[in-house]
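Lab notebook, design round three. We kept the backbone fixed and only want residue identities now. Task for the bench partner: fill in a sequence for the structure below.
Input structure tokens:
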């Protein structure tokens, strides 16, 4: 079977977790003491390094000095998100958005956290609001595409991923997602086209190879579809030998192909196989051949 939307969200799309800016502040304005500013900078470094407890400690110190600092609230939201404390993350991010509704970073992170919490409608609201603030964000449109897929709003999922392609025509993940959504819509030809495009952009894209094989196996409206399915299962396994589903499917196709071949032989529809055409050459009737010597 194809990857589920949840698996796509968790395992396939390389969402950025680098905790990069931009910071919406001027270093000398509204940051209190130099010590306060230094704590914030150190906290961001800790966050980037995955040292979340140290980042949290410094950010909470900053928040004590300035409870309305949107950047501190946003970064705290990221810390708690990374620690899987989604309730606390959402609390800080909601406060940040309430203070500055036009802060893209806080709004975007709030959409991410709402999505992770399973609050899909709030996630849609926050991410679409973020899209009006920064319509050039590839990561945002990819996330919206996954969100709409989970919400079964497939036309919107298509539009979100087409927006990614519009911004970056070499984005293999967007083509993968388009293939997945078109398959969900029963439009297998379009699914195949988009999976092939993803593979053209990234030849070792194991997930696209696997899903393309599934499409061919399910479609089989052409004589060679089953062979194509086998070819792409084997290509997926060559990239990632741990794809158990691909190994099982490839073995099943090989088995079914041999059974059909064997049935045709029994029914006399094909000539018998020659195990070794040279081995028993002396037993062949050559009386009809012209002799080369008298």
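Proposed sequence:
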């Amino acid at each position: 079977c194809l990857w589920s939307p949840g698996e796509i969200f968790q395992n396939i799309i390389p969402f950025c977790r680098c905790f990069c800016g931009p910071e919406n502040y001027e270093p000398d304005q509204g940051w209190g003491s130099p010590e306060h500013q230094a704590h914030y900078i150190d906290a961001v470094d800790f966050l980037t390094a995955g040292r979340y407890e140290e980042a949290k400690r410094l950010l909470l110190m900053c928040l004590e000095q300035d409870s309305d600092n949107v950047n501190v609230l946003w970064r705290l939201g990221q810390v708690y998100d990374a620690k899987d404390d989604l309730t606390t993350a959402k609390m800080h991010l909601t406060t940040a958005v309430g203070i500055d509704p036009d802060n893209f970073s806080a709004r975007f992170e709030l959409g991410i956290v709402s999505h992770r919490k399973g609050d899909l409608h709030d996630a849609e609201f926050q991410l679409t609001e973020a899209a009006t603030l920064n319509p050039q964000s590839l990561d945002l449109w990819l996330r919206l595409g996954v969100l709409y897929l989970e919400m079964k709003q497939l036309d919107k999922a298509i539009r979100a991923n087409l927006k990614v392609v519009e911004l970056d025509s070499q984005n293999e993940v967007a083509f993968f997602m388009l293939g997945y959504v078109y398959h969900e819509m029963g439009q297998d030809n379009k699914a195949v086209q988009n999976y092939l495009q993803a593979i053209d952009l990234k030849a070792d894209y194991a997930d696209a190879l696997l899903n393309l094989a599934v499409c061919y196996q399910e479609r089989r409206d052409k004589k060679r579809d089953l062979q194509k399915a086998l070819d792409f299962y084997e290509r997926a396994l060559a990239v990632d030998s741990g794809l158990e589903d691909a190994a099982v499917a490839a073995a099943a196709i090989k088995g079914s192909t041999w059974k059909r071949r064997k049935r045709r032989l029994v029914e006399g529809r094909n000539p018998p196989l020659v195990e070794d055409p040279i081995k028993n050459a002396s037993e062949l009737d050559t009386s009809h051949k012209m002799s080369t010597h008298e």
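Keep this in mind before ordering anything: The longest helix spans residues 244-266.
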